[in-house]
Write a structure and sequence with these properties.
alpha/beta; seven-stranded mixed sheet; Rossmann fold; about 30% helix; 2 domains; Quinone Oxidoreductase, Chain A, domain 1
């Protein structure tokens, strides 16, 4: 069998070895009914955790990390896909329990794949990636809750990151007055270019908050968790909701029940990894329709496969703005 280039992480007695680029045999790919020639991937926060070993994301070795890819079907026995089809994959344990995206080939189950929406290139799909797809899942959840721009502002935490950047662009495009929370004041012009109407310092949402704060927004998208989410909930208007999708600030939630039982606020949990295919297709359809391509380009940078290893540490250290596309080939 042929070999191909991949980022590979091996197990050592002390945990996991540092990632390295090497040749990987096609015969060692895992079971699946579709083989994809991967052309593009991206770097998400979870990828940073996996690449650095900061958290136990990887649960089998050797592992090719990377939770997202876009590419072209080469071989398929799945009825929905044929050679030449352009496809996207997000989650489903790739890069964790199933060999992932930082490679020139991937063999996966066809039900994990979504057809690349018309009008999106593979590079644009990975500029969106799991971060942007998750942001759209948040927007869809707020819409299903009945929230609209006429209810008041929407706040976005972690605004300079991947989820936050796409969330701002999507909410602004839909007509929301967007409040962007960031710890990087130098990014104010960038955030305003995406559609943010107000910039607040993340310290306003940090630290121990009161059970109820002043009502400031009708909706929120939170990619941080912990005290940030607790404070965001405490400041949400009556009948509003916050979609929570991240834990960069921690997995705890030091909150009170007050927003829920005194203001009827809802906390909407967002899972992108195992979301059903019908919801994935809807999210990608809406992204292709609603996301301003010029704003997507403004938040995107590109690196080669060899740059992935350093990018893993950079994203954990908060040195990556917006989205990063990895050119595999």
């Amino acid at each position: 069998m042929a070999s191909f280039k991949a980022v590979v992480i091996e197990k050592t007695d002390g945990g996991q070895a540092a990632p390295a680029i090497r040749q990987f045999s096609e015969s060692d790919l895992m079971d699946g009914d579709v083989t994809v020639r991967v052309t593009h991937s991206t770097v998400n926060y979870k990828d940073g955790l996996a690449l650095t070993g900061t958290a136990p994301v990887i649960r089998r070795f050797p592992m090719i990390p990377g939770i997202d890819f876009a590419g072209t079907v080469e071989v398929s026995s799945h009825p929905d896909f044929k050679p030449g089809d352009a496809v996207v994959l997000n989650g489903w344990g790739t890069g964790e329990t199933h060999l992932g995206a930082y490679a020139e080939r991937s063999r996966v189950r066809g039900e994990w794949l979504v057809p690349l929406p018309a009008g999106l290139s593979a590079a644009e799909a990975m500029a969106i990636g799991t971060a942007g797809y998750t942001a759209m899942l948040c927007v869809l959840a707020l819409e299903r809750h009945g929230l609209a721009p006429d209810r008041g502002p929407a706040v976005v935490s972690g605004a300079s990151g991947g989820v936050g950047s796409v969330a701002i662009a999507l909410l602004a495009q839909a007509g929301w007055h967007v409040v962007a929370s960031t710890g990087r004041p130098a990014e104010a012009d960038y955030l305003k270019s995406l559609g943010a109407a107000e910039i607040i310092d993340r310290q306003e949402l940090a630290g121990k908050g009161r059970p109820l704060g002043k009502e400031r927004w009708a909706a929120g998208i939170d990619a941080v968790g912990s005290a940030t989410l607790a404070n965001m909930l405490s400041m949400t208007r009556y009948g509003g909701a916050v979609a929570a999708c991240g834990l960069a600030g921690g997995m705890d939630l030091p909150a009170s029940v007050a927003p829920f039982i005194l203001r009827g606020v809802s906390l909407l949990g967002i899972d992108s990894v195992m979301a059903p295919k019908s919801l994935r297709i809807e999210a990608w359809r809406r992204l292709a329709r609603d996301l301003d391509r010029s704003k997507l380009a403004a938040m995107t940078s590109t690196i080669p496969l060899a740059g992935v290893i350093d990018a893993g540490r950079d994203i954990l250290d908060g040195r990556i703005r917006g989205r990063m596309v990895v050119e595999i080939g």
